[in-house]
Amino acid sequence: VGKNASGKDYFLEYIAKEFGVPLLSMGDVARDLAEKEGLEKTRENLHYISEKYMTKYGKDFFPKQLIKMIKDMNAENVLVSGIRPPSDVEKFKEAFGDQFFLVAIVVESDRVRYERTVSRGSARDNVTYEQFLALDKHEEELFHTSETIAMADYTFLRGEMSDEEYHKKIREFYTSRFVK
């Protein structure tokens, strides 16, 4: 969990690649639903999809989809991207107990996160700094992300370290907790 452009997916994708751990994303569920509804996969449309399906099927709609997928897999560990509201955490803890481990990725500088957003070059990230901050505010209102971050079992301060330093920190973290 973390704010936009904090490096959540980067963290998870590195573990997935380095250790061969499957990676599932609640965002993929939302993107699939947007596509089925003929919507462009913009951040605004994905927020719309999230609101629509959570309103219609309950706040636990997206985690339920992934929990079912995880239970159908035969994997020792599975990474999950896109955990947002506290209810997601509660649903995963209910399903997996102490086997569920929440990591918060934190970048204290909004400006650094914004610059990372712009550098991704994605059409959905083509926003001004003011729009970026407004999106942060909207996500907080929609998902209560700060509450979810506070629920983390471990907090990773991403800061401005080099990729090499960050990779080393991720490897140490993962091997110390999940490699037998």
Instruction: Tell me the β content.
Output: 5-15%
Q: Mean of residue pLDDT?
A: 91
> DSSP helix count?
9
General shape? globular
Strand order of the largest sheet: 1-2
Order of helices and strands: HEHHHEHEHHHEH
Instruction: Please identify the structural class as seen in this structure.
Output: mainly alpha
Care to count the β-strands? 4
Spatial gap, N to C terminus? 25 Å
- How helical, in percent, are the residues? 55-70%
List the uncertain runs.
none
Radius of gyration: 16 Å
| Major sheet description | 2 strands, parallel
Structural description of this entry:
With 180 residues, the chain is mainly alpha-helical. Helix content is 61%, strand content 8%. It is built from nine helices and four strands; from the N terminus they run H-E-H-H-H-E-H-E-H-H-H-E-H. Strands 1-2 form a two-stranded parallel ribbon. Helix 1 (8-19) crosses helix 9 (163-178) and helix 4 runs parallel beside helix 5. The longest helix has 16 residues, at 163-178. The two termini are 25 Å apart. The relative contact order is 0.19.
In brief:
This protein is mainly α. The chain has 9 helices and 4 strands. The chain has a two-stranded parallel ribbon. Strands 3-4 form a two-stranded parallel sheet.
What descriptive keywords fit this protein?
single chain, 180 residues, mainly alpha, two-stranded parallel sheet, 9 helices, 8% strand
SSE blueprint and pairings:
Blueprint lengths: L7 H12 L3 E3 H11 L6 H15 L3 H12 L6 E3 L4 H11 L6 E4 L3 H11 L8 H15 L1 H6 L3 E4 L5 H16 L2
Parallel strand pairs: 1-2, 3-4
Helix pairs in contact: 1-9, 2-3, 4-5
